[in-house]
Amino acid sequence: MPHVVLETHTPLYRIVERTEPFVVEEEGTVWRMRDVFLNRDDTHGLAECLVVVGGRLERFFVHLAQREEDGAIVVRPYPVPRIDPQPSVKRMVALVAEALTAADPDTHVARSTIEEFLSDRWVWRPDPEPSEWDPMLPSRGLPRPLDWGVVFGSPGPVEIEIGSGKGTFLVESAAARPDHRFLSIEWALPYAEHVRDRIRRRGLENVRVARADAARFLGEHVRPGSVRAIHVYFPDPWPKKRHQKRRLMQPGFVSAAAEALEEAGELRFVTDHEEYFEEARAALAAEPSLEEAPVLEGEMTDLTNYERKYRAEGRPIHRARFVKRGGAPDGARRPPR
Ligand SMILES: C[S@@+](CC[C@H](N)C(=O)[O-])C[C@H]1O[C@@H](n2cnc3c(N)ncnc32)[C@H](O)[C@@H]1O
Asked: What is the pLDDT of residues 14-30, one digit of tens each?
């Protein structure tokens, strides 16, 4: 039976709440997911789906079930087909599974019997004649890994800002260093869209935005050793004990970031939260390919929106810089200020 298993720790109803209805058109076929209906205890759902293939409309449901034992969600056609369903139904199941993963950073495809119907088979390419230039990367079908030359259409070192919020650091840095290429990885859609609009207004052709979870995006789409600098400024501190597992700067993220960096590339981290700072610094120091480098007085004080606000409040600000080992001596190839 065709199905996709999604690994997650998020309750099904939370994912469904954030899942947007969608329409996808590919090679003359239209796939549309309308509403998702949940049962009373929120453990099962039915996604109402319409497919127009060869001018014929088919309406059916895709079933979502969250398993009690491990929280995984199984996505499959409903009712269970007796014979192998048509490719259009399998593609619909894959699209619904992908819509759920796009709605929640903690939800991933773990297994699938319809591998060839998942979107990674459809490789995204920039539109050669866009009607309106869009610096936002699509959320589906991105190559693994990305080719920076294709993404930016120009050469130059790549710098990534994670969680760029309203985008002041990103926009100012991209304007100041036009020979560098900047990527914002921002999870929140309203911020990603806000940054996209700022980039368009400033006409900055060396910036792109990925609306994605940073650890996942680095691991899946960034070629190892291809990034000059990673900027992490004022990541959410999640101060409550029970929320601390949501913090960005954890060993999994640190190793993905270290892998993405080129030799002598660096990760810069700034926060006002002392306890998070020490925890993150310990995680960075434990990564064998990274080495801490000094932050000199007046360095790394580029203004992000949070830095501006917290400085005005007189809060102490903590800064750390870690360099990827194995390259030029410390300081020889730092990103220009
Ligand atoms: C406290 S704000 C800081 C914004 C900005 N760096 C500044 O200093 O003004 C943290 C930002 O990180 C984003 N964010 C949180 N977790 C993320 C993740 N896993 N991947 C990408 N962005 C994330 C949030 O949406 C938010 O925009």
From this structure: 999 888 788 888 778 88
269 class by beta-carbon count within 10 Å (0-12 exposed, 13-18 middle, 19+ buried): buried
* CATH topology classification for 148-324: Rossmann fold (3.40.50)
Tell me the residue type at 304: T
Nearest residue (CA) to ligand 1, atom 24: 163
d(CA 90, CA 115) in angstroms, rounded, equals 10
- The finding on whether 66 has its CB within 6 A of some atom of ligand 1 is no
Every domain range in the chain assigned CATH 3.40.50.150 = 148-324
**What is the distance in A from the centroid of ligand 1 to the CA of 327?**
29
User: Strand pairing partners for 32?
Assistant: 23, 50
As its CATH architecture, domain 4-121 has 2-Layer Sandwich (3.30)
What's the whole-model pTM score?
0.69
51 in Cβ contact with 23 (< 8 Å): no
CB 137 within 8 A of CB 47: no
If we measure between CA atoms, which residue out of 298, 218, 203, 223 comes closest to residue 250?
218
Per residue in 205-216, pLDDT tens? 999 999 999 999
User: In ligand 1, which atom is closest to the CA atom of 305?
Assistant: 9
Question: Does 234 contact ligand 1 (Cβ within 6 A)?
Answer: yes
